[in-house]
Amino acid sequence: MKKRFLPLFWKFSIALIFMVVVFGSINIYFIRNSVYETFETELLKHSTSKAKMIADMAIQPLLYNNITSLNEMVSNVKQTDKDLAYILILDGKNHVIAHTFYKAIPEKLIDANILKPGEARSTVFIEDVGNSDNIVQDVAVPILSVNIGTVRVGFFEAGYQKEVRKTTIIFLWMVVIFLVIGISGAFIFSYIITQPIKTISTTASGFNLESLDADKINKIQLQNKFVLGLKKVISIDDELDTLIFTFNEMLRRLTTTYKELQSAQESLLQSRKMASVGTIAAGLAHEINNPIAGLRNSLRMISEKPERYLSNQEYISMMKEAVDKIEKVVNGVLDFSRKHEFVKTPVDIRQIVEEVLMLAAFHLEQSSISIIKEFPEKVPPIMGSANHLEHVILNVVLNSIDAIGERKASEPEIAGQIVFNIRIIRNELLLEINDNGTGIEAEMLDVIFDPFFTMKKIRQGTGLGLSISYNIIKEHGGDIVAKNRNEGGMQILIKFPLTT
Ligand SMILES: Nc1ncnc2c1ncn2[C@@H]1O[C@H](COP(=O)(O)OP(=O)(O)OP(=O)(O)O)[C@@H](O)[C@H]1O
Ligand SMILES: [Mg+2]
User: Fold this and answer.
1) Backbone torsions φ then ψ of 73, nearest 5 degrees
2) What is the pLDDT of residues 144-180, one digit of tens each?
3) Vertex 334, ends 430 and 398: CA angle to 5°?
4) 3-state SS assignment for residue 434
5) How many whole angstroms separate alpha carbon 366 and alpha carbon 120?
6) Neighbours of 150 (CB within 10 A)
7) Which range has the worst mean pLDDT, 110-119, 206-215, 488-497?
8) CA 74 to CA 375: how far, in whole Å?
9) Which residue numbers delimit the Histidine kinase domain (predicted)?
10) Which residues surround ligand 2, an ion (CB under 5 A)?
11) CB of 437 closer than 6 A to ligand 1?
């Protein structure tokens, strides 16, 4: 299953916002509760102290049984506090003897809060007192002792609730501001943290060793002006700066190593080419010796009978041919063994095959291997480096010659054959090189492209031929595979992309 992708920036932001919101919500809950509690306590304190004050003021009139004075006192006190709903003075038997109601005392109020003997205070909440839908906090305190009487004061909660609401709203605003700052902070923080990582990630994914040279490496750094500016202001390095530095250093080393590897590969290719030249050297000597023998013969004939003008003309043209042949062979070897830059030009693959067959001509002849070329009439050019491709095909041909030789050792009646076949399929040119040599065990088919893998018995191989060939073909954007043919022997299939 394909894994879903969420950029680091959003992961960071979501995590931080989540934390800010959870923290903010817990804060709101606790702040709200504590504000409520504080105000409840304050209200209770206030109403108790008011009740106690009235109790003190009520002692004297009560002792003198001066009800009028009591009523006057309570209505005076009530006027001083707008949150006071009522004041009741009760005698020792809990009968109301003075109150602040203009009319009768509401029924539900009378026995709502009875102070038990010895109790210092009793509090109850009463709803819907009179025609007000306010909740009232009724606090009862004794006058000297319960036996003399009780003072009950009712306080509207509404006033306090308003205060509570006001304070809660202020706190809520604070939390909202905190959330806004927190969330913006979370975004900025995530941005600062993830931007360098994103730069590194983009650089890494778009990193192409081929198109990079070591000098350009230093330019890979934070491109983002905002983060760069911020870092300048803070001007203190952190792990991210170390990461960028290390990353750049790593890229620089990687590129240098890659360049070194490339040059090592080139040297390897060059020595492999020299090894191939070594292999075909005997054949080349033969290729050159034949025309030289012809030259010598012609020279002898001319010098023996210099007066025979007509036949000497014939010898001279034979000498010309011999010199041309020598020149062709020598040039072919020189060109093959020279160090060539890997430059792609349009290449006719048939031409490459011909060059290789010329280089390997003696070997093929000596091993009595016949060559069959099955080429279509029109072969489009491929984009490639002719010299490198020559090396690939020569190596394949030399391998085939060896494999055929090995098979002949046990089956001398076999007539060696190498068949070249070119096919165009869609946007690809396929070059098959088929031999009727030993072939190889199926499980070895992939391994033969590994560096230093060799099973050569006839002559010592380096085991680098096919591995270098593989790299060359890959650099051409193509592919090279080996398989055993049903009729015996091996087939090397090389695919080249065709650019239209
Ligand atoms: N046409 C073939 N038939 C059978 N075996 C082959 C053929 N081509 C290659 N191989 C096997 O693959 C091995 C690796 O080939 P490769 O060209 O890489 O190295 P090599 O030929 O052994 O050494 P060098 O190329 O240096 O002479 C060979 O040793 C051989 O065993
Ligand atoms: Mg080889």
Assistant:
1) -60, -50
2) 876 789 999 998 887 777 777 888 788 888 888 888 9
3) 45
4) strand
5) 129
6) 24
7) 206-215
8) 125
9) 283-500
10) 395, 399, 465
11) yes
Tens of pLDDT, residue by residue over 340-381, are 888 899 999 999 999 999 889 888 998 999 999 999 999 999
Question: Strand 122-127 and strand 417-425: pairing?
Answer: unpaired
Residue nearest atom 3 in ligand 1 by C-alpha distance: 439
Cα distance between residue 291 and residue 328, in whole Å: 11
Interhelix angle 67-80/8-63, rounded to 10 degrees, is: 160
Residue 469: closest CA among 273, 311, 182: 273
Query: How much is the pLDDT for 224?
Result: 59
Among 337, 198, 325, CA closest to 281: 337
**How far is the CA of 237 from the CAs of 190, 217, 231, 232, in angstroms?**
17, 21, 8, 10
- CB 492 within 8 Å of CB 432: yes
Q: Which two tokens stand for residue 368?
A: 């009595």
pLDDT of residue 415: 94
What is the whole-number distance in angstroms between the Cα of residue 480 and the centre of ligand 2? 14
Which two three-digit tokens encode residue 212? Answer: 């990079």
Contacts of 218 (CB under 8 A, 6+ apart): 248, 252
Give the pLDDT score at 345: 94
Cβ contact 435:229 at 8 Å: no
393-426 pLDDT tens trace: 999 999 999 999 999 999 999 999 999 999 999 8
What mean pLDDT comes out for the span 457-473? Answer: 82
Average confidence (pLDDT) over 303-320: 89
Amino acid identity, position 281: A
pLDDT at 72: 93
Q: Which domains does the chain have, with CATH numbers?
A: 8-165 (3.30.450.20), 341-500 (3.30.565.10)
Q: Are strands 370-374 and 417-425 parallel, antiparallel or unpaired?
A: parallel
Q: Which two tokens stand for residue 37?
A: 């509690």
Tokens of 346: 């349009």
pLDDT of residue 218: 46
**Closest to 399 measured CA to CA, from 337, 492, 289:** 492
The rounded Å distance from CA 214 to ligand 1 centre is: 37
The residue ranking higher by pLDDT, 298 or 451, is 298
Ligand 1 centroid distance, CA of 399 (Å): 5
Position 324, amino acid: D
How far the first Cα of the chain sits from its last, in Å, is 37
Tell me the C-alpha distance between 298 and 312, whole Å.
8
Residue with tokens 């969330």: 183
Ligand nearest to the CA of 463: 1
